[in-house]
Design a protein that fits this description.
about 100 residues; mainly alpha; 434 Repressor (Amino-terminal Domain); globular; DNA binding; HTH-type transcriptional regulator / antitoxin HipB; Lambda_DNA-bd_dom_sf; Cro/C1-type_HTH
């Protein structure tokens, strides 16, 4: 069986498919999930905590922390608040014009 070649996010941005609104929207959702997950992972590592320790402090199971850190979930505001509090951070949500966010 032949594997289908995978497309990276950067390759997708440069492709003609990226001109389609649904593709751009899906990309932006994925980008946001990965950015949030990376921020949580970096702070957790800065504190020297395991995923299990962060989960204990946030009241979440370790597999949920792992999925979040890998961009595998679409987080809710309550989840983000729990994680921020457990990490000693303040959750800040902003709405900006697209040109300001780029």
């Amino acid at each position: 069986m032949r594997e289908t070649p995978r497309t990276t996010l950067s390759e997708l941005r440069e492709s003609e498919r990226f001109d389609r609104p649904a593709v751009r929207e899906s990309y932006e959702l994925a980008r946001l999930r990965f950015t949030l997950g990376e921020a949580v992972r970096l702070r957790r590592e800065e504190l020297g905590w395991s995923q299990a320790e962060l989960g204990r402090r946030a009241g979440m199971p370790q597999p949920s922390i792992a999925r979040f850190e890998h961009g595998g979930t679409q987080p809710t505001l309550p989840t983000l608040e729990k994680l921020a509090e457990a990490l000693g951070l303040v959750l800040s949500v902003r709405l900006e014009h697209p040109t300001a966010a780029a």
